[in-house]
Amino acid sequence: VCALEPTAKVSDACASYADLDTLNDRLHPYVRNLANNTDFFSYYRLNLYNKECPFWDDENGLCGNIACAVTTLENEEDVPKIWRAEELSKLEGPRAQHPGRKQQQERQRPLLDQLGAGVGESCVVEYDDECDDRDYCVPEDETAGGKGDYVSLANNPERFTGYAGEGAHQVWEAIYRENCFSKDPVSDHSVGVPGLSAPQPALSQNQAQAAMDFKQVMRAHDREKAVKSGTAEALDDSENTCLEKRVFYRIISGMHASISTHLCYDYLNQTTGQWGPNLQCYKERLHEYPERISNLYFNYALVLRAVGKLREYVPDYTFCTGDPQQDKKTKEMITRLASAIPAGPHIFDESVMFQDDQMENGISLKEDFRNRFRNVSRIMDCVGCDKCRLWGKIQTNGFGTALKVLFEFGNGHAGEEKPLLRRTELVALINTLDKISSAMKALERFRGMLAAELNIA
Ligand code: FAD
């Protein structure tokens, strides 16, 4: 039964803020522990440096205006080196080299023999860079020649980096632009989505403003597109947006809100040199925009549902880090987590999506959705700060994996196909859940700080 509060705006997900907060109180320690205290989940392999931004340089690229890059650099040079984004966003801690295929095979073979397993998916996927039709992300290394590096996630927390200005805005703009589906089917997909038929509370001024901001951005993009293509087709009324497009937007906006929460919570006071929560940052970027927070909760529901679905899959998964005892423990931990997530569509009901998936110009809505999400993952190569790029890539891969689990695989019933995930996908999924779950905790503390401030006043 869907416990939807009429005042909550997690309406595309089938749960209220209060439900999700309660669930998060219970699950947060498991998620933290798994993401931070196991080798399997705290090292990530990616190609952080060798991929070029595939968008900015083409003739229609967003940064045809050279001044934006120059301005950023000029501004950078105005600040002391220590505070420069470049310095702040550097990766720290060990960056192990990829062990290499032969070395890994040697390390894994005895373990596999010992476990009596065949060639475990999680052991060979380190070399599997093939793109699967069902992927919502470009697999790491697909386009680059190199194998990438392993990065210690624990040593590179997502926090304030100073990356801002024209460059960062350009990336966000490009990401939101992916939400302009070629054709917005005006559908009644919303029928049957718990909560959507419930009366919506009147928007507060801030909510209305946030909605307007986005609509204006979207209309500007659509108009530009329509002018370029010479058609008015792109000028669809965004009020009649279909469920899938709204879900796409909420995922992006919720991810953006989570990033903002982390950078506000682990903020560098540039005057004192102290790291800590910045209440003003929270007020300006989050508190004033309940829609953004709602989208973050929406993401929690979506990712949690996907992790819950892994309960059937994890027992067959081979965790091979080379330490059988730790691998056994890791498997127990993720099994416990997945099993603690309520089964059934109480949290998020993905079955209502892509119901009326007709072909449009030879492409289905689901394919369009998938391709656009892949593009978002490609845009991450345009992020001009190492640490932001790292977490941006992990989180898009995490959401891509969640979407793949939700929309490409069954519900674990006998005879149904079980998801085959690459190690990087599983690691990204759990770390993305950890980021959202920690952001919800940080928001709770910010609300407490705000209440204390108001009491003092
Ligand atoms: P921005 O956050 O850049 O937002 C731009 C515009 O988008 C806003 O003006 C608003 O209209 C709209 N907007 C903002 N939030 C939302 C939302 N949730 N939903 C919908 N619309 C919204 N900085 C760090 O310090 N640490 C990081 O780890 C980090 N990671 C990043 C990862 C990526 C992928 C990107 C693109 C940027 C990252 N940044 C990071 C930069 C950071 O996100 C901001 O861009 C920067 O702090 C400047 O913030 P801003 O206030 O100008 O607005």
TrEMBL record:
Cellular compartment(s): Endoplasmic reticulum membrane
Gene Ontology CC: one annotated term: endoplasmic reticulum membrane
Highest taxon in the source lineage: Eukaryota
Gene Ontology MF term list: FAD binding; protein-disulfide reductase activity; thiol oxidase activity
Keyword Oxidoreductase recorded: yes
Disulfide bonding pattern of the chain: 63-68, 385-388
Reported cofactor(s): FAD
Keywords: Disulfide bond, Electron transport, Endoplasmic reticulum, FAD, Flavoprotein, Glycoprotein, Membrane, Oxidoreductase, Redox-active center, Signal, Transport
Membrane topology according to the record: Peripheral membrane protein
Region of interest called Disordered, as start-end residue ranges on this chain: 90-109
Sequence positions that bind FAD: 159, 161, 172, 253, 256, 285
Catalytic residue list: 385, 388
GO terms classed as biological process: protein folding in endoplasmic reticulum
Subunit-level organization: May function both as a monomer and a homodimer.
Family as reported in the entry's similarity comment: Belongs to the EROs family.
UniProt-recorded name of the protein: Endoplasmic oxidoreductin-1
Organism: Baudoinia panamericana (strain UAMH 10762) (Angels' share fungus)
